Amino acid sequence: MTNLDPYKIRADFPILHQDINGKPLVYFDNGASSQKPKAVIDAVSNYYSKSHANVHRGVHTLSQEATNMYEDARRKLKTFVNARFEEEIIFTSGTTQSINLLAFSIGEKYIQKGDEILITEMEHHSNIVPWQMLCERKGATLKVAPIFDNGELNVDAFKQLLSHKTKLAAFTHVSNTLGTVNPVKELINACNANGTKVFIDGAQSAPHLKIDVQDLNCDFYAFSGHKLYGPTGIGIIYGRKELLEEMPPYQGGGEMIKTVTFEKTTYNELPHKFEAGTPNIAGVIGLGVAIDYINNLGLVNIEKYENELLQYATKQLIENIPEIKIYGNAKHKASLISFLIGNHHPYDVSALLDQMGIAVRTGHHCTEPLMSRYGISGTIRASFSFYNTKEEIDKMISGLQKALNILS
Amino acid sequence: MDINSIQDEIIEEFTLFEDWLDKYEHIINLGKELTELDTSHRVDENLVKGCQSQVWLNANHNKGKLLFEADSDALITKGLIALLIRVLSNNSSKEIMDAELYFIDKIGLGNHLSPNRANGLASMVKKIKTYAIAYSAINN
Prior knowledge:
The complex is a heterodimer.
Chain A: H1 6-10, E1 19-20, E2 23-24, E3 26-27, H2 38-51, H3 61-81, E4 89-92, H4 95-110, E5 116-120, H5 129-138, E6 141-145, H6 155-161, E7 166-172, H7 184-194, E8 197-201, H8 213-216, E9 220-224, E10 235-239, H9 241-246, E11 257-260, E12 265-267, H10 281-297, H11 299-320, E13 324-327, E14 336-341, H12 346-355, E15 358-359, E16 361-363, H13 368-374, E17 379-383, H14 390-407
Helix pairs in contact in A: 2-10, 3-10, 4-5, 11-14, 12-14
Chain B: H1 3-14, H2 20-33, E1 47-48, E2 55-62, E3 65-72, H3 75-88, E4 91-92, H4 93-98, H5 103-106, H6 110-113, H7 121-139
Antiparallel strand pairs in B: 1-2, 2-3, 3-4
Helix pairs in contact in B: 1-3, 2-3
């Protein structure tokens, strides 16, 4: 047993205490977005009520206060991922923008005709499409490492696809559809040995696992704030300082310049070079408070408790839902389960669960190539957080049984 | 019966169900009873793509009336299709173009018809209306 008390934790999340369609909400869509503790909501509200002004370059008190809060949050993020320097943390609008920033900037600097970019079969569209666009722009080729039926990456195949042409590898730490936790350290080592730069999509790992970019020894790592109990519209990309310094800026505008004349502009230092325009100040401050909240619970405790939920839910589903098929049976999984039941359409099942106040996600989860690989059009996905309980999992099981009765 | 009379009839029918369970059971049964769409019509060009469930729609006309038949891979969607066809099929293009669909909201299933629900129903209604506009343009 862990020392997290989900019932106590739930008191911090106002949204969880409501009825949906007349039933107490069971929120199992944390993989898409997690709910916000009151501390985060208050931080955003207090910032706008008491401390708002534009950041950087302001002489007046409020601007300095806002700048301090903004840069404090950057330091929290630096510690959260154990970066060497705070300027290695670039604020973006989320993982998607982080990847687009990287695809543009690294593409301009390092990718040429004939080069290869290596991804995996389990990537989210956000970690496919920007690389496809880059390949089209530069005449490079996208290579895809396959997975096994159980949802684990074929690591040997991945390594075999690394060649002198592979300038960049981009892969997810945790699959949003299968829950697979990839052996990122082994993959990064292989890339480093090959001279291939590495980007890790941490959208699904940051809320569940301790991240240490120095220990991982990756070049880039990105995640979103809203899956991490923070506000929407905020995220980060971590980048190795030497690389960020070499890379050209992504967007031009205010904040990112040192001097501007009509003949020539020189760019600001890191991290501002990559943060053009007025940033999402409230989002950054909210994310900082979310990090405090998570640190306070402890990621080790979170991982342990969520794994308990995963094991319990997997067992209950297999024992009580006869025709269930779980997609993603990797040995090391994060706390989410993708499944189908017999020939029942995921839409029907989840629409009926919704009537019972149970929120799950259905569809292709922005991983269409992965769905094609399994020959299905979508799954039902239940994804758990530390504020979920075994009691709620029991409700989902009986909800599923009820839904199947209606549909059969 | 005209379009609004059928809508009112459906609303009346649904007042019988007090529980959401009975309501959904009824819709699912309507879906099961819907005439199977011939496989020759279950083709890509008839596909109304929803992100989650798919709808196939086939249109015909007879003596100035437009006739629709449809199918879906999801049962709830199929049940709602059965209702939409009961309301819209076998009417003139003008009647279809002018039709305002209020029954879905009244029977408490409006959320299934919202465009962001991604079940293809909203697109299906749009496509039916487009057929009506096209048919009326050709015949006027």
